[in-house]
Structures are given as structure tokens and as C-alpha cells.
Automatic annotation (TrEMBL):
This is Alanine racemase. InterPro entries: Ala_racemase, Ala_racemase/Decarboxylase_C, Ala_racemase_C, Ala_racemase_N, Ala_racemase_pyridoxalP-BS, PLP-binding_barrel. HAMAP family: Ala_racemase (MF_01201). The modification N6-(pyridoxal phosphate)lysine is found at residue 22. Residues 216-342 form the Alanine racemase C-terminal domain.
């Protein structure tokens, strides 16, 4: 992950590189992720909620922490205590901030440039009070790209144009538009700060291209049992899968309660001793079955570990097999798993 951060920081050129660590750092664990990114040189972080920001503040006393969803009235004490920068997303949030904080207190403003999710509309800008024209009042102007994964999508340029217009109208404050995929769109999209999330965690920012980033997650589980079965034996709940020939099946201690997607039943694979074997039948809460008939007799054995995610079969590949995206898979993964974090390599190869 540290190498991925450095990759984005270099790609960002003269723009600074923040990190999006919302949802417990995309499910990977905020503590380890935040510390690693700070060590790699990251100084600005984006979270979704005040609660996430407060947790991050404990870990990183000196970081700049932006709260993408802004804050609710009840969250004001926590926002202040943790010295978080709220992202204000509509005129109501702006008015609340003006009432809660004296002029001169900086905040971030989000513009909706085409995502139609959060952010001020262009029509809201003329009504912004004079305090927002003061230098430094807008700590960061940001917007979010809807189609950056598809470099040729016309909305990318339209959003850039709308965002640029808002940025100019507000006196060119410090600005940020690009998520992971946006960084790859080119320097026009970089402004002063880029804010990748997914790519830091190894997801491919442009699925049509080879992934320039390193896989960050490996998921392994032990084989519990290996059994010989006859042709036409059914496997798993619903007897949805039938063996076409006699063979061997390994039952592995991982299931949907571990975050392995049930929709990948009979559609994904695992690596056993470096060889790919198919997952067969419906996976259950804490078990899945692999057809290991093609492996040498006697392998695997109960207790051997199989690799369910890693360099050969990564999060994007499993997500595709399950009909979802890497983001969803990562954020559901491993609540019950024993996690081990490996320190960053001191001198990673370029
Ligand atoms: C507003 C905002 N900025 C940045 C990001 C990071 O995007 P990505 O994970 O695609 O790099 C997200 C993620 O959803 C986001 O919502």
C-alpha cells in the first residue's frame, strides 16, 4: 500500500496526494492503514463521517482530516474536539457552519459537477456570503467524478469544465477533483490535491487497462476435509452443482460470513499449491467447496492453506465473478478473519 501511495504521489506531479480512508479504510483497518500512509508521506485524509474523523484524529494528531459528509448538529462537539474540516455540501450546511463558527474559520466546499449526489449546485454559488470570498476561507473546493473509470466518457470533461467554472467564480481556492481513476485522466484533473482511495488498496483504477498498482490484500483459509465423490454427486445447498465425473472435493473454512461473496458460488476460483481450482456449489456461511480433482493425489491435505485472494486472483477478479465491484468486496471482507499486517518494504522496487 505504501508503494501504491508513492505511485499516486508521483503521478500527481506538483499536486499533493491525500488518501480516502472512509469505511475503516475500505474495510482494511483504519489504524494500520492510516499509520502506513502517514509514514509514506500522506498528510491529508478524507473520511465520510465525524465518527470516522474522530477515530482518525486519535491516530494522527497532526493530519488534515476532511469529513466528506459534513456534520449534523449533534456532531458539532465531536467535530470541534477532533479539529476536523467539514465538507459543506448544500446551502443548509453552509448556513449551519456560518452560525456555528466565526468568519475566518476555514471549511471545505463541495460542488456537484455532475455526480448528482452531494454538493452545491452552480446556482447556489452567487448566494454564498462574503466570508467565503476571503482568502483561506475555503480550505478546499472539491467535486467528485462519476465516470473517471472510463477515460473516454464525455462526462469527465464536462465535470472538469463545470468544476473549473466554480473554482474561478470563487477566486481559485485550493481545489481537488480526482479520485484514483481521476488521477489517470491527466494533470488537467489534478488541481492542487488528488484524493485516491481504491487504488491505494490495490483496486484497478482503469479496469480496461492492466492494473499499475500492487495487490494489497491476501486471503487464505485452511482446508478442513477432502473427500472422494462419485460422478453425479451433488455439492452444497440446493444441490445446485453436480459432479460430471468422479473426483475429489476440498471443503475450506471460509464463507459469506467472512465477506466472501455468495454470488461467486460456482463462479470463482482458489489457488491450491499455486494451481487454480474452481469453487463449486453454493458457498455457505463459513464453508466453501473446491473441486481439487485435477491436483496430484493426496493434495491438498486437511490443514493446508488455500489462497482465495492474492496476486494471482485479486479483489477485482473475485468481485467481477460475483457481479460486484472491488469496493464492495473489500468493505465486506474479513470482519471475522484474523488479520496480519506486513510492514512496508523499506526500498520497494520501482
Ligand atoms: C468524494 C470522494 N472522494 C474520493 C473518493 C476516493 O475514490 P476512489 O476510491 O475511487 O479512489 C471517494 C470514494 O468513493 C469519494 O466519495
Amino acid at each position: 500500500m505504501a508503494a501504491n501511495y508513492r505511485w499516486f504521489a508521483q503521478r500527481a506531479g506538483s499536486a499533493a496526494c491525500a488518501a480516502c480512508v472512509k469505511a475503516d479504510a475500505y474495510g482494511l483497518g483504519l489504524t494500520a492503514v492510516a499509520r502506513t500512509l502517514w509514514q509514506a508521506g500522506c498528510r491529508e485524509f478524507f473520511v465520510a463521517s465525524v465518527g470516522e474523523g474522530a477515530a482518525l484524529r486519535v491516530l494522527l494528531p497532526d493530519a488534515l482530516i476532511y469529513v466528506l459528509n459534513g456534520y449534523l448538529p449533534a456532531e458539532l462537539p465531536a467535530l470541534r474536539a477532533a479539529r476536523l474540516l467539514p465538507v459543506l455540501n448544500d446551502p443548509t450546511q453552509v448556513a449551519a457552519f456560518e452560525a456555528d463558527f466565526p468568519a475566518g474559520t476555514p471549511a471545505a466546499l463541495q460542488i456537484d459537477s455532475g455526480m448528482t449526489r452531494l454538493g452545491l449546485d452552480a446556482g447556489d454559488l452567487p448566494a454564498l456570503g462574503p466570508r467565503w470570498r476571503q482568502p483561506g476561507a475555503i480550505a478546499l473546493l472539491l467535486s467528485h467524478l462519476a465516470c473517471a473509470e472510463q477515460p473516454g466518457h464525455p462526462l469527465n470533461r464536462q465535470q472538469l469544465e463545470r468544476f473549473t467554472a466554480a473554482w474561478q467564480a470563487l477566486g481559485r481556492p485550493r481545489a481537488s477533483l480526482a479520485n484514483s481513476s481521476g488521477v489517470l485522466l491527466g494533470s488537467d484533473w489534478h488541481f492542487d490535491l488528488v484524493r485516491p482511495g481504491a487504488g491505494l488498496y490495490g483496486l484497478n483504477p482503469q479496469p480496461e487497462q492492466p492494473n499499475p498498482l500492487r495487490p494489497v490484500v491476501r486471503l487464505r483459509a485452511p482446508v478442513l476435509q477432502v473427500r472422494e465423490v462419485r460422478e453425479d454427486t451433488s455439492v452444497g445447498y440446493g444441490a445446485s452443482y453436480r459432479m460430471r465425473a468422479p473426483g475429489r472435493i476440498a471443503t475450506v473454512a471460509c464463507g459469506y460470513a467472512d465477506g466472501y461473496p455468495r454470488a461467486a458460488s460456482s463462479r470463482s476460483l482458489a489457488l491450491v499449491g499455486g494451481r487454480r481450482v474452481p469453487l463449486i456449489g453454493r458457498l455457505s456461511m463459513d464453508l466453501l467447496m473446491l473441486d481439487v480433482s485435477a491436483l496430484p493425489p493426496g493434495t491438498p491435505r486437511p490443514g493446508d492453506e488455500v489462497e482465495l485472494l492474492g496476486t494471482d486472483y485479486d479483489v477485482d477478479a473475485l468481485a467481477a465473478a460475483a457481479g460486484t465491484i472491488g469496493y464492495e468486496l473489500l468493505t465486506h471482507l474479513g470482519r471475522l478473519c484474523r488479520r496480519r499486517y506486513h510492514p512496508a518494504e523499506p526500498n520497494p522496487p520501482e
